[in-house]
Every structure is written in structure tokens, then in C-alpha cells.
Write a structure and sequence with these properties.
Layout lengths: L8 H11 L61 H11 L8 E3 L6 E3 L20 H27 L2 E3 L2 H23 L8 H26 L4 E3 L2
Antiparallel strand pairs: 1-2, 3-4
Length: 231
């Protein structure tokens, strides 16, 4: 029998030729040929240094013999590391000893703190809570302070200031002025010449009394409300 031929054979062949490129497996149709002038020269791939700068006007600049003003010489200080380490050991804080627990004859040990055998008070239930005796003492101190303040207020009320009435103020002012007139009359009757110590003392005493009375009269006349303490 004849070989089987597919009916879509020509269609598949056309599709394959249509989608195939000419240089799919053989490379591009035209390749750029390098120019014969760009041939590889000897030592062309070695690294090259930067070109030197030309000297100005053909004159070579001499190095400066005097250092600039901003020059700071490097001073090397010799350190005595033995003394430095000794001072650090003497002034440093000593290492705190660590608690260990030895459980065998051979000396096997382990840290005691993370084992749970070392007590930690911050994990207690009553940590940071005020004890009962402290609360009781604070209450007693507060009660004593309140009693003391109450007694002070009571004493202040007993020694409260009393305001003078207008009639009493007028009477006191009249009495002061009358007393001033009497002392002034006695002062005017003193002799002009004070040749003895008795006369001089008497004159000074009367002057002090007059000054005090004048001060009291001026204070009462200046203030309309006058308070006196109940002793």
C-alpha cells in the first residue's frame, strides 16, 4: 500500500518556511570586517601611566626649604605601657566574684544564679509593696501632724487681732495728743543752758518721748483701721 500522507502537509511546510530566519543557525548574512589599519600592536594592552605635566616656561620649580606656617610636626610620644597597665589595675573596679556550685568530687561546677538555687527577691509576690508597719507608722505621723496643725490654729484664734472701732481710735488719738502737749509744755520750760548732766539727761528723755508720741500719732492718723493683739 502507498505511504500515508497528511492532508495538511503543504500548509505545515509553508508555515515552517515562513517563520524561519535565513541566518538562524548560520550567523548573519553580512559580517563587519575589521579595517587593516586597526591591527593589534605590540604591548598595546599593557597599562599606561598618566602623562607628566609640562613645567611652566621650561623652569623647574625648586622644593621649598622652609616649612609652611600651617605645618605641624608629628611628635611621637613614648608610652610606658607597664606603668599604664599598673595604674589601670590599681584604679579600676575589681571584678565581682561569681557564685558557683560544685556537685562532684572531681570539681565539676556550674553557675549558681541561673540554676534556680540563688534567691532573687525581685521575683517575690510582695516585692516593692510597703510593709504593714510602715503604712501604720505613716498614718500615725499624719494624724499627729493634723493634731499639731489644729492646735496651732486654735492658738492663733485665741491670739487673733482685734480691730479698734472709730470711737476708740478717736479717744486713743486724743489721749496721745494731750500727752504730747503736756510733755511739750514741760520741754518748753527747760532752761536754755544745759550745763549739768541732769539737765542734759532730762532734755534727751523728753525729746525721745516726743518723738515716740509723734510717731504713734502719725501712724494712727494715717491708718483708718487699727488692730491690736488680744494678749
Amino acid at each position: 500500500p502507498l505511504r500515508y500522507l497528511c492532508k495538511l502537509r503543504n500548509l505545515v511546510k509553508n508555515e515552517a518556511e515562513k517563520n524561519k530566519s535565513q541566518w538562524k543557525t548560520m550567523g548573519p548574512a553580512k559580517v563587519a570586517v575589521p579595517s587593516p589599519n586597526d591591527f593589534l600592536q605590540k604591548r598595546s594592552k599593557e597599562p599606561k601611566l598618566a602623562p607628566k605635566k609640562k613645567e611652566e616656561d621650561g623652569k623647574k620649580l625648586l622644593p621649598l626649604s622652609v616649612p609652611p606656617r600651617t605645618y605641624q610636626p608629628v611628635t611621637r610620644i613614648k608610652k610606658n605601657f607597664i606603668n599604664k597597665n599598673a595604674v589601670a589595675v590599681m584604679t579600676g573596679e575589681p571584678k565581682k566574684p561569681r557564685h558557683f556550685c560544685v556537685d562532684t568530687r572531681q570539681g565539676d561546677k556550674y553557675l549558681l544564679e541561673p540554676s534556680g538555687l540563688f534567691p532573687k527577691y525581685i521575683r517575690k509576690k510582695n516585692y516593692g509593696v510597703l510593709p504593714k508597719y510602715v503604712i501604720r507608722r505613716n498614718e500615725e505621723m499624719k494624724r499627729e501632724e493634723e493634731e499639731y496643725q489644729a492646735s496651732v490654729l486654735e492658738q492663733l484664734k485665741k491670739k487673733a487681732m482685734k480691730a479698734l472701732s472709730e470711737e476708740e481710735r478717736t479717744n486713743v488719738l486724743k489721749a496721745l495728743k494731750k500727752n504730747w502737749e503736756e510733755i511739750n509744755h514741760a520741754y518748753q520750760g527747760l532752761p536754755i543752758v544745759t550745763d549739768t548732766s541732769y539737765k542734759r539727761l532730762q532734755k534727751e528723755e523728753l525729746e525721745l518721748k516726743l518723738k515716740q508720741l509723734e510717731h504713734d500719732i502719725a501712724a494712727i492718723e494715717k491708718h483708718k483701721c487699727v488692730y491690736i493683739a488680744n494678749m
